[in-house]
Every structure is written in structure tokens, then in C-alpha cells.
Amino acid sequence: MATFKAIVIDKAADGQSVRLTDFDEKDLMDGDVTVAVEYSTVNYKDGLALTGKAPVVRRFPMIAGVDFAGTVESSSHPAWKAGDKVVLNGWGLGETHLGAYAGKARVKGDWLVRLPASMSAREAMAIGTAGYTAMLAVMALERSGITPARGPVIVTGAAGGVGSVAVALLAKLGYAVTASTGRPAEAAYLKGLGAAEVVERKELSGQPRPLAKERWAGGIDAVGSTTLANVLSMTRYGGAVAACGLAGGMDLPATVAPFILRAVSLIGIDSVMCPLPLRQEAWGRLESDLDRAKIAAMTSEIELADVVDAARRIVQGQVRGRIVVKIR
Questions:
Q1: Is residue 138 domain-resident?
Q2: Residue 128: which region, alpha, beta or left (left: phi > 0; alpha: psi -120 to 50)?
Q3: In terms of domains, do 137 and 263 share one?
Q4: CB neighbours (10 Å) of residue 12?
Q5: How much is the pTM?
Q6: For each of the chain's 328 residues, which pLDDT tens digit applies?
Q7: Any bridge partners for residue 12, and if so which?
Q8: Are residues 264 and 309 located together in one domain of the fold?
Q9: Are residues 263 and 186 both part of a single domain?
């Protein structure tokens, strides 16, 4: 058995400790596929786990990291063989199952998705769980009948990982995108991704009215709380909002008015336990519908040793776009 570098979270007297250390392959958890991890990424959820800002980690010690791309090293699962290129998002990785910030991962083959043929492992993690979640949200809006012809759509937390990919996806699909951000200096960046309009977060941070002026046919919200309540109150008749984040809080100070007087739909997006067919569809759509040049332009790369600092910055709202983590 080999050892490899890993970022390990453990319990400590004042909460938890985080260290970059050598980890023995024999201590990996049970699974029918062992993957040589090549790239991971830093998602907002990773930031919460590594900083201890939320109880993401459910067992200790835990290798952090909720997603990876890599190459199958060995497999007893019928769908996978050595040499296959794979992606994994969620399924408790980095929460209840040893995660991605490590040279190797042993997981269930049923959790894996084949890396799209035209994508490298690095590109897949430049997209990462944030981009995969954004694609799930776009697909949910489409299923609700929100087409470009219905009118403009809003993306909140637009300069973050989910928001940046959502803006790029929606713009390429022909939607007129309004990007909401608490960082007005990022307006040029967001317009470069395809946003037709950029609004400051403060426009959505006031006391929500039961019903406000109708502005958007739909939206993707990564913020929650008051922001989501305001978006719902401003959504046009028959519109839909996909909720996939809680950067602003878990509460929702809204009323039922948008639902019963404007027939607005609020759609929950879960990327962790999402069924395999939807995952496969999402990654197929990311391969075909995402302008990867825009993703490359918003992506920076770090090493494992830099992950803890990146986690702190992402929770503090200091990260724009995407960060990939080079494991091998």
C-alpha cells in the first residue's frame, strides 16, 4: 500500500483541526473503485467544511473535498475498469465518505460519471460541483417552461462559482441575464460572461414585499434568505426560481403570495444525491452548452497546500469564478 498527501479534518478542543499530511491507502474507506485523483476544486461547501463555518463534516477524521476528476486505478464494479476517466460530485464525499483532497479515493462505482470525451480532468474541475449545480438549475428552469422568449432571468451571487457558470450557460443558451452581485467592481467580468445587466445586491436586500413589481421570468439563486424572498416577489406570472445555495443564510422571509397569486414555482436543486441519469444529462449538457473558453478565463489553479487559504477566502466572498486544485 502507498501513502499520499491529503488534507485531513479532525476534531479539536476548539472545534476542528485541518492539516496537510501523509495518508495511508489502507485507511481509505470501503468501495469497489479506486481512483487516482488528478484534480479537485474549491466550492463554497468546501469552504464551509474547512473553516468549520457549518457542520458539513459528519465523521472524523475526514479527508476534505466534495468532488474530483481522475483515472480509475482498480475496479470490481462492472461499469468501470482501470484507465477509465471519471468525475464524482457529492454522494457524501468530504462529509461522510473520505473525500477528494488526496492522491487517491476509494468510492462506489455507482457514484461515478464518465468524464465527457472532449473534456480534460482539469476542465471538469474548473466546472466542478458549482458548475454542475448551475447546469441542474438551468435544466430545472427549462423543465418549467422558462425559455429565452419568456423574458429576462436573474442570477444571484453571480460572481461566485455557481453564479459565474450559470451566467455563462444562460447567456450561451440565448437568455437575457441579469447578474446580481455584492461586488459592483465585477460588473465588467459578469458582462464578459454574457450578462446583459448587472445589479447590486442591495437592490434585493431590503425588506421583502409580498409582491413587488414583476421583473424576471425566472432565476437561479445561490444566496437564499432575503435575496431569494425578494427575487420571488419580483418574478413574473408563471415564472420559476431554482434555489441552490445559502451564502446569505438558510432562512426564507417570504410569503405565499408569489405562489398563489402569480403561480410562481420555487424549485429546489440538490447536487449531492441527484439521481445518476440527471447527473449524466447535466455533464452531457455541460460538454455541449458551456463556453469553456469563458470557464478557462474565470479559473485559477492552486496546489493542495493552498486549499485552506482558498477555503477561507471563498467563505468571505473574496473568490471570483472558479479555483481548480491540482492533486497530481
A1: yes
A2: left
A3: yes
A4: 11
A5: 0.93
A6: 589 999 999 998 888 999 999 999 999 999 999 999 999 999 999 999 999 998 899 999 999 999 999 999 999 999 999 999 999 999 999 999 999 999 999 999 999 999 999 999 999 999 999 999 999 999 999 999 999 999 999 999 999 999 999 999 999 999 999 999 999 999 999 999 999 999 999 999 999 999 999 999 999 999 999 999 999 999 999 999 999 999 899 999 999 999 999 999 999 999 999 999 999 999 999 999 999 999 998 899 999 999 999 999 999 989 988 999 999 8
A7: 15
A8: no
A9: yes
Q: CA separation (Å) from 39 to 103, 104, 211, 286, 324?
A: 9, 11, 45, 18, 7
- The answer to whether 130 touches 269, Cβ cutoff 8 Å, is no
Rounded Cα distance, 173 and 175, in Å: 6
Phi-psi region of 127 (alpha: psi -120 to 50; beta: other; left: phi over 0): alpha
For position 18, which CATH number holds? 3.90.180.10
Domain that holds residue 100: 3-115+298-326
Nearest to 126 by CA among 286, 326, 323, 328: 323
